[in-house]
Amino acid sequence: EMTPEEIAFQTRIDRGEKIEPKEWMPEGYRKMLVRQIGQHAHSEIVGQLPEGNWITRAPTLERKAILLAKVQDEAGHGLYLYCAVETLGISRDELMERLHSGDMKYSSIFNYPTLTWADMGAVGWLVDGAAIINQVPLQRTSFGPYGRAMIRICKEESFHQRQGYAIMMKMAAGTPEQKRMAQDALNRLWYPTLMMFGPSDKDSVHSAQSMAWKIKMNTNDELRQKFVDQTVPQAELIGLTVPDPNLKWNEEKGGYDFSEPDWNEFYDVLAGNGPCNKDRLGARVKAWEDGAWFREALVAHADKKAARPYA
Ligand code: ACO
Questions:
Q1: Measured distance CA(13)–CA(217) in Å, rounded
Q2: Residue 250 forms beta bridges with which residues?
Q3: What is the pLDDT of residues 148-203, one digit of tens each?
Q4: Does residue 270 line the site of ligand 1, with CB under 6 A?
Q5: What are phi and psi of 12, to 5 degrees?
Q6: Cα–Cα distance between 270 and 18 in angstroms, integer?
Q7: In this record, what's one Pfam family (predicted)?
Q8: Nearest residue CA, atom 23 of ligand 1?
Q9: 277 Cβ closer than 6 Å to some ligand 1 atom
């Protein structure tokens, strides 16, 4: 049932060739990429909000400078990714419109609040840690502009992950109160982080087609398992406890057995009912509206310059 063009396309994918923007691609491939890269870009931008929340309250000047740089990096990631989506023939204005109307998603994790300074540690350690595990394989994704954006993004994410872990390490070795804050941040963010990898494989709508096209390189459950296996020893090293009574090393599979997150909560957050959905989207819509005068001025200036005759 595949057309000759589609068969030739799949052969290129199977050979490991990269697909570039001006080359022929099936409409479904283009749509899958717009959806995934677009959501990814939106996640980077919305993801600035929970950490931006703590810039003014960082405990030292050094921590403030580090956090500021990290949050700026996330803006950069969003911009590379929007550029990658634009090569697929959709404008940035349309992507924004689709985010603001609730038609396009962003990662569920950013709908949870950041309540204490320890959350800056836990977000860097867990959320950016999960992002790296998800994104390292995407460096080999079949669409050229997406894979290339991932190379730089992963380098920066690994700095982000380490700065988060360094905060956790410091707090876990601090006063009993500080250690309690670190443990509390881990308790609250553990399951929402596991949800970042998406629903279990049996409920993942897009995985099969996305993996056949090498847009996704691994299933959701594979990457979730990898995250747990990597993160549990890191928690143990600094004397924190992963909040899962069923967590147990399984010699046979060479990985941990662990509890699934509450999938009802996951779908509820996706439906817009997480603790911060309204705040997050509200903040993005307000930023867009507040920036309208600036976008108009930029266009007016560009038009004036273009109309000016050369001397
Ligand atoms: N948050 C919000 N939506 C999600 C999440 C999540 N954590 N996980 C899955 N979904 C959505 C999917 O987008 C899809 O909805 P849609 O059809 O309306 O787009 C639906 O749930 C079903 O899930 P899947 O079929 O498994 O979707 P998919 O194959 O796209 O896998 C995944 C989801 C793993 C997130 C994939 O899109 C991906 O790898 N994206 C790139 C990485 C990324 O976006 N990271 C953002 C967070 S990390 C960061 O930026 C700091």
A1: 12
A2: 255
A3: 999 999 999 999 999 999 999 999 999 999 999 999 999 999 999 999 999 999 99
A4: yes
A5: -60, -45
A6: 32
A7: PaaA_PaaC
A8: 204
A9: no
